[in-house]
Amino acid sequence: MATLPTLGSGLGYRTELAGDIDRHADRIDWLEVTSEHFLFAPEARERLGDLARRFMIVPHGVELSIGSDREPDAAYLDALARLVEDADAPWFSDHLCFTRTDDVALGLLAPLPRTRQVARRLAGRAQWVQRTVGRPFLLENITYYVDLATPLTEAEFIAEVMEHCDCGLLLDVANLDINARNHGFDPLDFLDVLPLERVVQVHLAGGGEDEEMALDTHSAPVPSRVWDLLDEVVARTPVRASLIERDTGFPDDFTELLDEVDRARTALAARDGLRVMGRV
């Protein structure tokens, strides 16, 4: 991962934001696109080609289902490899989860049993996907709302996966914040366990809440807790790319998102001046 480029601060591409992205391209370093929106849609691929002429593009998937018992679909992987090649992406990413059982799509990112056996099987699968697609592959931590008793903590499980493959980490800082709040652990302890030298990219987003828990909705500005965690991560390790995610609740004024892109860029650039957060 040491040879990967530094992309800077990017924004998740959404069709609702397309016009604003076009008008403010000078303030956005790169774009992340949802892989499945472009894999089998010729018109979307034309749009991707236009974007790739102006931005660095990174495909981010939601349907690879790397944790399923069955290997990923061959046609899906072939299309993904072509997408990554066409976009000339420096890496691609997906989630550390499963989204289907046999031929049944779950419609969500489901957490995996956190055992060493599962972690090592997953690492082998990730290594195979990376080799098949032909570009560096990043795995992202997810949110989960029910935490079953397992031998490993989430951080230990991710570390075990990383120990047995040479893929990178996409650290979703917002997901870390949500899980820490919902399940009562210290996010700094989580960072202590992760092999942070494997972090290539981070995700930043704001979510919602109900009466019982924090929710991963990508529907609000990035909260101060997540910005503080980003500063902590950057103080501990270099990060090559940050990404602002907004899927709903788009602001009337696009400069709100541009300001978040700017703030993330500043955080990444300030590494040498940061100090590690103290523990209370």
UniProtKB/TrEMBL annotation:
<dbReference type="Pfam" id="PF05114">
    <property type="entry name" value="MbnB_TglH_ChrH"/>
</dbReference>
<protein>
    <submittedName>
        <fullName>DUF692 domain-containing protein</fullName>
    </submittedName>
</protein>
<dbReference type="InterPro" id="IPR036237">
    <property type="entry name" value="Xyl_isomerase-like_sf"/>
</dbReference>
<dbReference type="InterPro" id="IPR007801">
    <property type="entry name" value="MbnB/TglH/ChrH"/>
</dbReference>
